[in-house]
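User: For a benchmark we're assembling, each entry needs the component sequences followed by a predicted structure for the full assembly. Here are entry 17's components. Please fill in the structure.
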Amino acid sequence: MQITQLKFEYPRTGFSLQIPDLTVADGERVAVVGPSGSGKTTLLHLISGILVPQQGSIRIGEDRLECLPESQRRQLRLRKLGLIFQNFELIEYLSVLDNVLLTCRIGAGRVTAQVSQRSVQLLNEVGLAHLAHRSVTRLSQGERQRVAICRALLHSPGLLLADEPTGNLDPTTSHRILQLLLDSTRQHQSTLLMVTHDHSLLHHFDRTIDFAQFLSAPATVNGGAS
Amino acid sequence: MNGPLYLALRSLWWFRGRAFTIVLCLALTLWLPITIRLLLNGFRAEITARAESTPLVIGARGSRIDLALNALYFDTAPPETTTMAEADYVQESGFATAIPVHVRYRTQNVNNARSAAIVGTTLEYFEFRRLGIGQGQGLAMLGDCVIGCRVAEQMQLKPGDHLLSAPKNAFNLAGDYPLKMNITGILAPSHSPDDHVVFVDVKTAWIIDGIGHGHQSLQHETSDDGRILNRTDDNITASAAVLPYTEITRENLHSFHFHGDEKDFPVSAVIAVPNSRRDQTLLLGRYTSVRNDRALCVKPADVIQDLLQIVFRVEQIVWLASLLATVVTALLLTLVLVLSVRLRAAELQTMFKLGCSRWTVATLIGTEIGLLIIAGLTVAGIAAWISQSLLADRLQAWLF
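Assistant: Structure for entry 17:
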């Protein structure tokens, strides 16, 4: 994933994000830290194609996001990216298994026997296979985040974007979830870009990007401090 | 199952309380107009068919509607009576076959069932309406009756049982006596008002009316016990101590007789079955000209059309009220759905962030709304069908 001369501004608030250059290598595990409001979530939204930059370029593999129409950006999110949110963002009226299969139901393809088998396998890997048909409303916070991770990993994405996935969890559960994420990305050979406020987790990552430097003056963050 | 449909079904099941309420609101709103439409359509078809199958009805001058409805449905308030002279006139004109219908009396209640109208007529009526005997046999002698299948069912009667007529006034000692009628047969179902009445020969109806009667012979009576008030060579005047027979049997049949000229005997209507359209026009012409002062001749189809115009106006008012209720309900449901979508904004936003298109989100919401509408319509349709099945007979009985 490569970002070049990126500039994005919210028209209403006037908040502006500028990233001159950022490269994340395949299989790399990168933590993104920085004060609230510094644009970490905006960066994830730009990388996932939810937002489109006014200037600059975002390249994921061979795809240049700013050149893709919305439909292709959506397909990219559905098939090549994995998204994990701070509040899990599970659908309450679906079971654990159906939440994992959600991307298939909303456009990433049909729910085939193979896909179902893979989702059960993922749930098994995170220790939730026995809860596959339970409502997600009856799960603990840690269990919900594990379901969200399974949902993100269903299509074996090359790039996993996690927005404070441990933000609402206690320290023990945070470490377990992080370990799960790291193990999963290693196992599935995915790249991980994770926003976090928890500095105690940073030593698990290959490197860290600190957004504080973007607030003072735009700078190249390639190979930032870890 | 495709994605949006699956998700819509899961969502509706999860929010089943809300979904059930919406379906119930929709069903209740739609049920009334659908039921009214079904009932009125059935009512209109039935009433029109019977009216159109009855070419002309002749009766005493007065209300056209009362005359037509009494001749067709028997159950309305009896109109002023005409006489058998009208039936004779029609028959002798050669234009039509005259079928007298005399409906004034009802049976007594049996087994908690509502009493049935007693229809005095001739055998031509059964042929005219194509009424067949389902059980037993037809009318054979005075005092016999055949009953409609619904009467038999409601009163739990069978051939060989008896049925009493109800006197018009139980406190009038000099009035008509109840007649014990012998049930000889039950009509096959015709799904018409004929299923709900008791048929007797018109002469039996006159006996119930008190015009004819039977009593012990006083011809050779010699004892002076007060039963003979006066005796001359050609006339015997009896006292009230001579009681009339209240049942006609083979043994006392010969004693039954009528006082007066048959052409003066009352009938509530005469159904005229013309030989041709031309004869119908001619007969109708006579009744609107030379016989206009004596009797009224109506085409039931025309009378019923006039009646249906009133029904149509009432239907329009009901429709308007239902339409307003539907609009109000639709607005309220729209509000509920809009608020519901707002409550689910986070869920829809998640789907969008994961890669779901706006079209898929719209399809999901649309599918949910569609399923609710289909469920509401289905429930309303089933409820309307059940209501129509239960209410059609009651409505007819209530109207006539």
